[in-house]
Amino acid sequence: MLLGRYLNSTHRVCQNGSRSGNKGAPELTKLYMHGYTNRRAVWLIPRTASIVSRLASIIIAMLSRATRLLGLTIFSLALLAADLSAQGFANRGPQPPQPPRTARQAAPNDLTGYWVSVVTEDWKYRMVNANKGDYAGLPLTDAARRAADSWDPATDPDPVEDCRNYGAPNIMRQPGRIHITWQDDQTLKLETDAGSQTRVFSFESSQRAGGGWQGVSRAAWDSVPGGRGPVLTGSLKVVTTQIKPGFIRSDGVPYSANATLTEYLDRVDFPDGNTYLVVTSTLDDPAYLSAPYMTAVHFRKEADGSGWKPAACR
Amino acid sequence: MRASLFQIVGAGLLSAALATAQDPAAAGNGGGAFAPFRPPASGSGADVSGTWMLGGHQDVAYGTAAGALVDYGGIPFNEAGRLFALAWPASRQTLRTEQCAGYTVPYAFYSPGNYRFWEERDPHNQRLIAIHMYFQTSEVNRTIWMDGRPHPPAWAPHTFAGFSTGEWKNNILQITTTHLKHGYVRGNGASQSDEATVYEALIRHGDRLTYLAETVDPVWLDGPFSKTVIDVRNVLDPTAWLYACEDGEEITSRPDTQIPHYLWGKHPFLREYADKAHQPLLAALGGAETTTPEFREKLKNKAALDAAAMALTVPAKIPEQSSRAAAEEPNDGQIHILPVQGRVYLLTGDGANIAVQVGDEGAFVVDTGAGKLTDKVIAAIATLTPRRVQFILNTSFHADHTGGNAKLAAAGEDPSLPGSFFANAFPGAGGVATLMAQNNVLIRMQKAGAPAASVPQDTYLSERRRKWHNGEGIDMFYMPGASTDGDTIVHFRQADVIATGDIVDMTKYPVIDLKNGGSIQGEIDALTRILQLTVYRHDEDGGTMIIPGHGRVSDEYDVGEYREMLSIIRDRVQTAIDSGATVDLIKAARVTADYDTRFGATTGPWTTDMFIEAVYNSLKRR
């Protein structure tokens, strides 16, 4: 599947829309590749062309290239004029070094404030306790199943109070509120009232001690390659490791100390005035997961902290 | 000299590129010094082109055609939404108009298979016009307009894909969709209405796409219903299956007018899911509170939960509710024209809908509105054809359908009459447009003392009248005892448009004029007759288009839904009559509670109470 935009080549590949929407087989007949200076159709079905028409195409293409060369020259001159004008034909001298922007200054959007979880995804696992042995949707290893099977609701603590359900891989799925603040210019703090947990998202690479329920989180404003270097996507990317082992589902489904949690936090402002924080998570755990476990949850922005009700876990 | 010119050009290019690259503020998302354009309307953002499929790790029980009955936890139903779902048995899907129904968003995103996105750009300036989507399951082809165009008016038809516009905000593709049909939010009857607006956000993280949708539905939801799904990019298998659905007879012994439904309070599987999942019934019944953290606390008080739950399974003892639907008829003193199909147009703004067919001959007009804006109606028709109105057919004698008869007829002519043998018997024949109707319209209007110039004289008595006009066959079918005893539906056969008069009313419950020969069963039979004439184009979208007596342009699916509603209400009232209930008790029982927020009225010329009385008396007469 090639559709999309590609950088450097700055080419875009799009379909002709020729996949039939009719009842016939949806055959792809043609792809277009569109660059800044040319456009090319790639036929995916046998197509005949006479020698005359091929020659005609070549001549037209040569003429077209000549025209483009002329256009490029004019374009370059225009750029030169603009550049010289911007410089004022003057030697501006060395610019004073600019201090690097802090994470707070570089924030592409504001994630701070109070947010309340909207419990609509995996409702039956989040709002009520999962039934023992219900592992639907989880890519578990045999070791994980064995460990989860040993969980006993009669003897294990109530999942609502059990801190093993409030580790980083599961904390965002707990019904509750979160409060996000800047602890300092390089550190975001995320507190939860459910389980009374605190997550610290550091934008600096200094190592800190892990081993707690929330592990060690390294944060960065997410970026993708651009034509002139990385371009911010608008997401906050958080990678958390060194997490104290706990549960990813309330029926005792475990994650291990070697789990790595990768999260993206995105703010969405809808036209109806509602603002959401979407948390997209991928959990990798070589011990207990046979594949990355992907989930998303979301929170709605609240005006203040009036709904904040901390409840510690045990 | 020449060498220096190239050096200058080269240096200029390099310098400009470097200057821009060093300026973060100038660096856009994928744009920059060499970017040939930056579309102003939609901006630019993450490219979602390609093929994606469901990640499959969350909500695994809620994919297509899945979900147990009475498993509504996390759905912010209002009372009407919950009651609609509680009346819904899975066998509703066996109805012909339901078998191939498409999927609306966001439900379509919960279905298996590929979702393909591709861009449509203007070939001359590369501006983004639209992003297209293809949902493999149910073959929904969707267009997300990125060129800033407005949404259609409220009287335009609805589809399963709806009408979508999009823009990028912070690299996130945000979409607003209106004009949706009634669709499911979970495969167990839990629904969003045709009044829903869906806001969506597509957030790309590499080869993953997080989808957030917020459904705002004033009819069946108590607040916004937001939900996420994760899709993964399907790089190697972008193909899609076809959804070769064709409806057929699934229950051969069941009459068309018998609609499967559960009576409230008698759901045979009410507790099945809750018991199996070890959930309190209250949790399984959904509601806005089930989406909040506070609900977890409430679940601890198990003793109080069951009583609270049972109260939610029947209509509450509260006053009747009115429609929360957006007005589907303009009220700005203007006549609005909407092309429907072929050469048939809708004119709306003056009481009942007016249908106009144009062509080489004079216009054929169905109904003339309330008569308050007839001059503007005439002017509007003049923009569609240089010819005058030749035929006018009244679907009913009611004043909002015949109010403009005299004036519109006077502005028209019937050139088929002068010089014919009719002219011998009726001197001056053809000097005005010919007014037609079923004969009872004439009788009712004369009885009411209507001016002679407004009374249709060219009437018919039999089941069908027909005419070839403006290059197509026009069928006029008599619908006895429906809204009145003189109802006609008009089928423009080539355009494939049916003007139904008040047999279909998308703004309220149908007016059943008992005193003038209407009946609930005649109404349901008439809807069934209409459905025998319709053909959908694809998965219950399009094909034969319907111009109702009031409200938006519709199609077969909408008529099917309307018939389902009336059949279910008929059954509820009949059951109450059989148990000895009086009409006042039936009204108090709120037997229309699931539909009132869409079609109900507590004031105005046709209230819910009047409708229930008409149904009651109609059934008592049988």
Number of strands of chain A: 17
Global mean pLDDT of chain A: 82
Uncertain residue ranges of chain B: 1-42
- Note the total helix count of chain A: 5
How is the biggest beta sheet of chain A arranged? 9 strands, mixed, barrel
Task: Please state roughly what percent of the residues of chain B sit in beta strands, choosing from under 5%, 5-15%, 15-25%, 25-35%, 35-45% or over 45%.
Answer: 15-25%
State the major sheet of chain B.
Answer: 9 strands, mixed, barrel
Straight-line distance between termini of chain B: 104 Å
Quick one: overall form of chain A? Answer: globular
Instruction: Give helix and strand order of chain A, one letter per element, not per position.
Output: EEEEHHEHHHEEEEEEEEEEEE
CATH class of the largest domain in chain B: Alpha Beta
Strand order of the largest sheet of chain A: 5-6-7-9-10-11-14-15-16
Q: Supply Rg of chain A.
A: 27 Å
Beta-strand segment tally of chain B: 24
Class derived from helix and strand content of chain A = alpha+beta
CATH superfamily membership of the largest domain in chain B, which one?
Ribonuclease Z/Hydroxyacylglutathione hydrolase-like
Helix content of chain A: 10-25%
Report what the structure shows.
The complex is a heterodimer of chains A (314) and B (622). Chain A has 314 residues and is of the alpha+beta class. Chain A is 18% helix and 34% strand. Chain A is built from 5 helices and 17 strands. Chain A has helices at 51-87, 103-106, 123-126, 142-149, 168-171, and strands at residues 4-6, 11-15, 30-34, 39-43, 113-117, 177-184, 187-192, 194-195, 197-202, 216-226, 229-241, 246-249, 253-255, 260-269, 275-284, 293-302, 311-312. In chain A, the strands form 4 sheets. Chain A has a 9-stranded mixed beta barrel. Chain A is globular. By secondary structure, chain B is of the alpha+beta class. Chain B has 3 domains: 2-233, no CATH class; 272-311, no CATH class; 336-621, 4-Layer Sandwich (Metallo-beta-lactamase, Chain A). In chain B, 24% of the residues lie in helices and 23% in strands. In chain B, a hairpin with a 7-residue loop joins strand 20 and strand 21 (487-492). In chain B, helix 13 (520-533) packs antiparallel against helix 14 and helix 14 crosses helix 17 (608-621). The N and C termini of chain B lie far apart (104 Å). The relative contact order of chain B is 0.11. The model of chain B is unreliable at 1-42 (pLDDT under 50). At the A-B interface, strand 2, helix 1, strand 11, strand 14 and strand 15 of A face helix 1, strand 2, strand 6, strand 9 and strand 10 of B.
